[in-house]
Amino acid sequence: METIGLILYQPAEVIRKIQDQGVRRLMSLCRNGHSFYQRRFRKKGIDFSSIQTIDDLELLPLTSKSDYMEQPEDFVLKIPEAPMFERIIYNLLYTAGTTTGHPTPFYNTPHDYYLTLTISKRIAEIVGITPNDTIVNTYPLTNVPHLTFFAAFWYATVTGAKLVSTLTGTPHSDFPVTNSSEKAARMVQESEGTIIWGNPSFIRRLLIMAEEMGLRYPYVRLAAVSSEPCSLGLREDIVQRLGRLGAMRPHVNNRFGFTEISAVFVECDPEGKAGFHNPAPDNFFLEVVDEQAGKRLQDGEAGFLTITHLNRRGTVLIRYLTGDIVTLSREPCPYCGRTAERITSQPYRKSDLIKFKGTLINPKPLLTALSEVSEIKEFQVIFTKVDPIDPLSPDHLQIKIATDENEDGIREKITKIGVQSVEMRPEVLFVNQNEIYDPDKSFKSKRIIDLRNQKT
Q: Which of 140, 201, 308, 394 could form a disulfide with 285 if both were Cys (CB 3.0 to 4.6 A apart)?
């Protein structure tokens, strides 16, 4: 594969110079054709020409999701004299919803699509995708175009790898093109797939089905996962199941991404210890900030991730709050030597924290511990009330479990996990796995449900 990711090995001062140039180009473009930032800068008394470097960005206010979702078209550059390559809309994806329930469009020009393909080639180089691979895309076909489904096309396109789309998803009565998850499991075997592409909970369910169906996956070497957290326990479970299906030395590559960059931050090492690499420091600048003041935090300090586009022509965002809490490192990667920044913690959101019995808790340790119990097929954590119809009733924790193992032994193990993880004794309920997660109806599993009246 041609090496196009040389910038990822450049000294910090070289990367910074390129980013400073990107900031100046960004300010010129926004001054000439960005409705939202023209209004905001005018209101704040900011001169576009005064923002010359990445350090100057700290002088600018943060852009919230609500800013973007209220008027997404105002975030699209509109410069009539720009070349057609940089001006016309080539395609669009959808990202966060609004209070009305409508998803928010993210516009791409031909310039942006070529950029996405270039970044995809860098990512493929980091992951190790080659022309000899067959990528089996298990992300579902959905009603609106999402990043996760289309990304597999980009990686196959830029590497020359084969692509098999399983077309899972909710069936449509007028357009019978989707397939069942059982069909998808068979397609991995029939295509001699080498890379399974999907969200980790669906891939795990797919592997459980494959074992039950007596299928064999001797060619699979990689599960490329994203769209939801993949704990160490879930990673190990996927690897073990692939091994039982005949895969030789398989591993998991976890990715973290979102539509607003049309890319992912990606791992370079099979065990995921290095964190998530920024594959395009010349195209978007990352900061970790204090949400209230917008102050940039030091590397290693946990804060809110923001992105600034340095080389886009469609939807353009400056200091955009993604909602994710992370830590950054700009030290060279100890595993691959790349010098661009890395996200060095598992991203999470403030909204993930839950107030339960008067205490704010992080349920992540509970979810991680449950995912490490190999005897469990599916699980779901439910925050409810002792008396569900009485809003003043005490809080109550339930954990739904799907398993083929002895229920008494599993109940004891889950109860112990609940006490150790969140210091609460759960009620353990045993149900059918499709009651928790039906892969033919849902994009991904819903691990936490809060049934309480949040106003109390």
A: 308
